[in-house]
């Protein structure tokens, strides 16, 4: 959902700590790429933190329902087990004696 790699670049002005900036330049760091990657990571982190907060009630209700009713596959397995048990206890129509 949060894919930033195919987006065009836009010039901007930043105020950075002078000593950190000098050290980064001395190390040959690409400032634009570094800030871009760090900012994208922070945006993703905050986006999902907000999403979790905004959806915490829905997630809690969903988890409670799964705890109470089980997942779809668990319900299907339970249904198939019950259906198989019913069939095993019902006499076959082709066997008039009722023996299976």
Structure commentary:
- It is a single chain.
- This protein has about 100 residues and is an all-alpha fold.
- Helices cover about 65% and strands about 0% of the residues.
- It contains four helices and no strands.
- It has helices spanning about 20-25, 30-55, 55-70, 70-90.
- The longest helix is centred in the middle third of the chain and has 24 residues, at about 30-55.
- It is rod-shaped and about 95 Å long.
Shape: rod-shaped
What's the total helix number?
4
In angstroms, what is the radius of gyration?
30 Å
Helix content: 55-70%
Please provide the count of β strands. Answer: 0
Key words describing this protein structure:
100 residues; mainly alpha; 4 helices
Brief summary:
With 100 residues, the protein is mainly alpha-helical. It has helices spanning 18-26, 31-54, 56-69, 72-89.
Secondary-structure map with pairings?
Elements: H1 18-26, H2 31-54, H3 56-69, H4 72-89
